[in-house]
Amino acid sequence: MSQEAAISRAFTESEVLAHDAHEAPVHVDLDAPPALTTKRQLSTYIGPLVVLLLFIGFWEYMHRDGMRRFLDKKPSLLPSPVTVIDQAFLDKRVRDQLLEGLGWTSYAAFLGLAITIVFGILLAVLMARAVWMERSIYPYLVALQATPVLAIVPIIYSVFGGSMSSRVYVCVMIAIFPIVTNTLFGLTSVDASQHDLFTLRRAGTFTRLFKLQFPAAMPAIFTGFRISAGLAVIGAIVGEQFFRQGQKPGIGIVMEQFRQKLRYAPMYGGLLIAAALGITVFFVFSWMAKLVVGHWHEATRRGS
Amino acid sequence: MLAARPNNTTAPTMVPEMNDSEPANVNDTGPSNRHELAPALSFNGVSMVYPDGTHALSETSFDVRPGEFVTVVGPSGCGKSTLLKIASGLNKPSTGSITVDRSKVGYVFQDATLLQWRNVRRNVELLAELEGIGRAERAARAAEAISLVGLDGFENKYPKQLSGGMKMRASLARSLVLNPKVFLFDEPFGAVDEITRERLNDEVLSLFTRQGFAGLFITHSISEAVFLSTRVLVMSARPGRIVADYPVPFSYPRQPDLRFDPAFAQLAGEISHALRGAHA
Predict the structure, then answer these.
(1) DSSP state of B240
(2) Minimal CA–CA distance to A228: which of A180, A175, A182, A177?
(3) β-pairing verdict for B69-73 and B214-219
(4) Which residues of A touch B89 (CB under 8 A)?
(5) Cα separation of A206 and A129, whole Å?
(6) Mean pLDDT of A275-286
(7) What span, in angstroms and rounded, lies between the C-alpha atoms of B226 and B52?
(8) Long-range contacts of A146-152, Cβ-Cβ distance < 8 Å, separation of 24 or more
(9) Which of A293, B118, B197, B244 is close enough to B274 for a disulfide, judged by CB 3.0 to 4.6 Å?
(10) Residues B215 and B81: beta-carbon distance below 8 Å
(11) How many Å apart are CA B38 and CA B36, to the nearest integer?
(12) Which regions of B200-271 does DSSP assign to beta strands (E)?
């Protein structure tokens, strides 16, 4: 309790004092669990916040002193965080350019992800249906997964050019494996006696698929979605950076343009936006998983 | 579904006649009894060898008649579960045949096998749903079955929110919805604690006396076997075959205190002795 108060006090002392004075008698009446939750909530946010502050501090230090002292480079190669915010996000022209980039990148990533999800789940259903299907397809999925995406991108570029569809192909290629493997795992790891239950009532293939296998697989499928969504964002940006020019300049292209003009602050701004997109996608899918399976699936409720 | 067991008090007196597993319809004691005595489930020289060469069951014949509750006890791995898999049609016997109306068979698994993503009500409705029974009808049946097993108020809970005993009750309710004429139990209470097991035994007995199904129950527990059954079959070690057949003379309804009756202890002792013989 006191530790918690001390931590809060460090931030807004007067507010906490007022709060304490008001809440004190209530706190005495409460059982341990609520205090524990407050403590847990605090530590949930305090930890990451401290790391963020340390990171920003390190960044600022590298800009001011570290670049020259340790790396023997110009500090302008790493603009300070304040400069980045100022030149990338507070400058309307740059901001609009970056936001347009964010739009195109998201478009490529989500279109790619949508195709991946439909195609990947279909593939997984076929593979779950017949062992020979799984044996025939699986090695090539592994091969696709093992091939570095950067080695495929030039080929796609030669064949399809730098259009939006090329970027979408890259997304599909990089994102398909986790969807297929997680869905397949989910569909095939249904409890044998639950299968028996359906067999006893002579359930058909589709009944079994939609009333038993898919619902049981949902947690695994959502894990696949989450991993693939992150990969799709990476795929979109990798595609853009290789193709560079393009009608629909995504964040990767915008960053490349700034780099060529030696405008490093906006370039770092693009990096932050790209990171934010990846993080958002990750949390959106975690949240969706919680929404869909959280009420019955143990693991999601404990948080992941 | 709530139809009372046709002729409750006759069950114990029927037992001696059934010891020699006669073919159906021989006991022609009268028009009303004739139907009652036709076996609900009958094993005719059934044996089972699995593809991997495991000889699980050697030639086995016995009948379970309506109003009978037959329990099979035997050492681990003696093919007891195989018996149920064959009875339900999940497995085909290597030789012999069984006679049973498959559409009227209820199966209670070793674990509750509830679908984790469905609440109690929707789990209990599942089998009716698979049979294509209409929404209103299956909701009514599910509500009735949930009441019967004492899960009122838990309809909207998910399996992860239930205790082991409650899950088994939900599993029982799920089978009850189709109003089975033959109820197969595959060591259903092996995983719950002793107190819960005894309460679930009472529960099963009250369902048995109310619903009048034919029961075939598999267990390790001799006391559970004697407490529930009209008849206890002892199986030998693998390949399993029936080596002893004990009628249980106690009348229904049975009180929990029956377990401490000297006659109960004596019968349990005899079965235990036969079981040790079966092990050797």
Answers:
(1) B
(2) A175
(3) parallel
(4) 200
(5) 11
(6) 93
(7) 34
(8) A149/A173, A149/A174, A149/A235, A149/A238, A150/A238, A150/A242
(9) B244
(10) no
(11) 6
(12) 214-219, 231-235, 242-247
Assign A38 a pLDDT band (cuts: 50, 70, 90). Answer: low
CB-based burial, A130-140: b 16+ in 10 Å, e otherwise: eeeebeebeee
Q: Comparing C-alpha atoms, which of B15, B87, B76 is closest to residue B48? A: B87
For the stretch A190-231, pLDDT in tens is 999 999 999 999 899 999 999 999 999 999 999 999 999 999
ipTM of the complex: 0.81
Q: Would you give the end-to-end CA distance of chain B in angstroms?
A: 44
Please answer yes or no on whether A200 and B90 come within 8 Å at the CB atom.
Answer: yes
Contacts of A207 in chain B (CB under 8 A): 130
d(CA A23, CA A9): 15
**Token pair for B112:** 């509750």
Comparing C-alpha atoms, which of B188, B217, B211, B210 is closest to residue B200?
A: B188
Interface touch A201/B105, C-beta < 8 Å: no
d(Cα A12, Cα B46) in Å, to the nearest integer?
80
Chain A residue with the nearest C-alpha to that of B111: A193
How far is C-alpha A39 from the chain's CA centre?
Answer: 27
pLDDT at A37: 59
Handedness of CA A195, A200, A205, A210 (dihedral sign): negative
Domain boundaries of chain A, sorted by first residue: 2-75, 81-301
Residue A290 burial (CB count, 10 A): 16
Three-state SS at A73: coil
**Crossing angle, helix B194-211 and helix B164-176, to 10 degrees?**
10
3-state secondary structure of A192: helix
The pLDDT value recorded for residue B241 is 87
pTM: 0.79
pLDDT tens by residue, A134-181: 999 999 999 988 988 888 888 888 888 878 888 999 999 999 999 999
Taken in order of first residue, the domains within chain B and their CATH numbers are: 50-101+181-280 (3.40.50.300), 114-180 (no CATH)
- CA of B155, closest CA in chain A: separation in Å? 14
Share of chain A above pLDDT 90, in %: 63
Question: Is the CB of residue B98 less than 8 Å from the CB of residue B46?
Answer: yes
Task: Give contacts of A200 with chain B, Cβ < 8 Å.
Answer: 88-90, 105, 107
How far is it, in rounded angstroms, from Cα A231 to Cα A108?
Answer: 12
Task: Please list, in sequence order, all residues whose beta carbon lies within 8 angstroms of the beta carbon of residue B3, skipping any fewer than 6 positions away.
Answer: B211, B212
Place of tokens 């898919």: A214
Residue pair A242/A153 in contact by the 8 Å Cβ criterion:
yes
Tell me A125's DSSP state: H
Our CA-based measurement puts residue B91 at a distance from the nearest CA of chain A, in whole angstroms, of 10
Q: List Cα–Cα distances, B7 to A68, B33, B66, B85, in angstroms.
A: 98, 9, 10, 29
